[in-house]
Write a structure and sequence with these properties.
Radius of gyration: 23 Å
Number of helices: 16
Distance between the termini: 21 Å
Helix content: 25-40%
Family: Belongs to the FAD-binding oxidoreductase/transferase type 4 family.
Shape: globular
Keywords: FAD, Flavoprotein
Strand content: 15-25%
CATH topology of the largest domain: Uridine Diphospho-n-acetylenolpyruvylglucosamine Reductase, domain 3
Organism: Caballeronia mineralivorans PML1(12)
GO molecular function: catalytic activity; FAD binding
CATH class of the largest domain: Alpha Beta
Cofactor: FAD
Number of strands: 19
Structural class: alpha+beta
Largest sheet: 8 strands, antiparallel
Number of domains: 4
């Protein structure tokens, strides 16, 4: 965008009105820095359309004026995908005014929503209809469905229900030139050509702007059981997962692992947390079961824990006796992000691995870090039930910028090369954004990169949608 700033803003104002534009710096600040405070950008205007029609009109104007656009949901991402760069030419198109729940269909087990609806509001609307929407993550009180779909968010229930992509039946998308693709179908089966829905889900706003979605609902989960388990090592955690699955089946909705280093860090930095067990253990697992029947999860989880203790896979365990204790367990797990930021500068590795290879990967990664970076502690935790490991390495606060950049590059190379050697991925649930964009060139094959560039060139030939992200 060049000297046409004023005229474009006037034309945008004609589309979205006073409520749809954010021009002053103070109000823009919330849109210009990401949640981890890693990236900050500049923009001449934040545009907040109130409908699909307004979004399409905004995109047509941007297409005509060759104005780059950064789509943004709740701005809770971890990779900088929703933040403009510092040149001041990119405008933000925020979905936060498109926050209506349009339909809840309990018979079809679907919900139709606009992209700016907060995830927690979707969960509550499902519960009000005696249904269950399983996507759940730490930012659910502020992240939006559009952002969840754009990043193919994961969270704690992937083991049973899958990622955001698995929870959407259809989407509506505004393309770079302002055309609207109406893929808002509530169909469980549709084998009539290429799967365009899944092309846009996970594309991080680089192929189109998701404006509405049809989501899957499930029967209400009246029974729930949660346990905290102490283990000798990560090896027992993987074996315990297999044993628990054999007894509890697909009623397991969460199986979360954490090291003692993570536990002690949380106790230091997160208020009102305490150890669920009387002793200290090298590793811990948080297990949660859910079912439509109220008593069944507790019975099954007790059986699994008894079997684990008898087999020597667990050293100690406690079953939550009420919802308050359950929430205390989850507060520990959800406190990791807050605690690690206070403890140091975390180098976050959101990797996916075959579950059968988790143990050997952790062993080898621990050895590599100990040999090459003995001064740096490792925070090893994650959604081990679906193979998503957050193998984070903490840098101390106060490092000089050049030293921090050097260590970041060297540690990332070490961990990501190893993940790829184990046939894993360098991004399991957080996406690519700016954080992993350059690394993607190293780890994607020539064929994959060519296909991705071809898709981008077809849908966004002028490179207007979220430039500088993913590719």
């Amino acid at each position: 965008m060049t000297s046409t700033h004023p005229s474009l803003i006037e034309r945008l104002h004609a589309v979205v009105g006073d409520a749809g534009l954010v021009l002053d710096a103070e109000r823009q600040a919330a849109y210009l820095t990401d949640w981890p405070r890693k990236w900050t950008g500049r923009t001449p205007v934040v545009v907040r359309p109130n409908s699909t029609e307004e979004t399409a009109a905004v995109m047509r104007l941007c297409h005509q004026t060759r104005t780059p656009v950064v789509p943004q949901g709740g701005n809770t991402g971890m990779t900088g995908a929703g933040i403009p760069d510092m040149d001041g030419a990119q405008i933000i198109v925020s979905m936060n005014r498109m926050n209506r729940i349009l339909e809840v269909d309990a018979t079809s087990n679907t919900m139709t929503v606009e992209a700016g609806v907060i995830l927690a509001s979707v969960q509550q609307a499902a519960a009000d209809a005696n249904r269950f929407f399983p996507l759940s993550l730490g930012a659910e009180g502020s992240c939006t469905i559009g952002g969840n779909l754009a990043t193919n968010a994961g969270g704690i229930s992937v083991l049973r229900y899958g990622n955001a992509r698995d929870l959407a039946l259809g989407v509506e998308v505004v393309l770079a030139d302002g055309r609207v693709w109406d893929g808002l179908r509530a169909l469980r089966k549709d084998n009539s050509g290429y799967d365009l829905r899944n092309l846009f889900i996970g594309s991080e706003g680089t192929l189109g702007v998701i404006t509405r979605a049809v989501l899957k609902l499930f029967p209400a989960q009246h029974g729930r059981a949660t346990a905290w388990v102490g283990l000798r090592s990560h090896k027992e955690a993987v074996a315990l997962l297999s044993l628990t699955q054999s007894i509890c089946g697909d009623r397991i909705i969460a199986f979360e692992m954490m090291s003692e280093f993570g536990m002690s860090m949380i106790l230091r930095h997160v208020a009102d947390t305490q150890r669920p067990l009387s002793g200290v253990h090298p590793y811990y697992v948080l297990i949660e079961l859910a079912d439509a029947q109220q008593e069944l999860p507790g019975t099954l989880l007790e059986e699994a824990l008894a079997a684990a203790l008898e087999a020597g896979l667990a050293d100690d365990a406690v079953l939550a006796v009420n919802d308050r204790q359950r929430q205390q367990f989850w507060k520990i797990r959800e406190g990791v992000s807050q605690a690690q930021l206070r403890e140091g500068h975390p180098l976050k590795h959101d990797i996916a691995l075959p579950i059968a290879r988790l143990v050997s990967f952790i062993d080898e990664a621990n050895a590599l870090i100990a040999a090459s970076f003995p001064q740096l502690p490792v925070l090893n935790f994650g959604h081990i039930g679906d193979g998503n490991l957050h193998y984070n390495v903490l840098l101390p606060h106060g490092l000089a910028d050049d030293e921090r950049e050097r260590l970041t590059a060297e540690v990332n190379l070490c961990i990501h090369d190893l993940a790829i050697a184990y046939r894993g991925s360098i991004s399991a649930e957080h996406g690519v954004g700016r954080l992993r964009r350059d690394e993607l060139r190293r780890y994607k094959s020539a064929v994959e990169k060519d296909l991705m560039r071809s898709i981008k060139a077809t849908l966004d030939p002028d490179q207007l949608l979220n430039p500088g992200k993913v590719l």
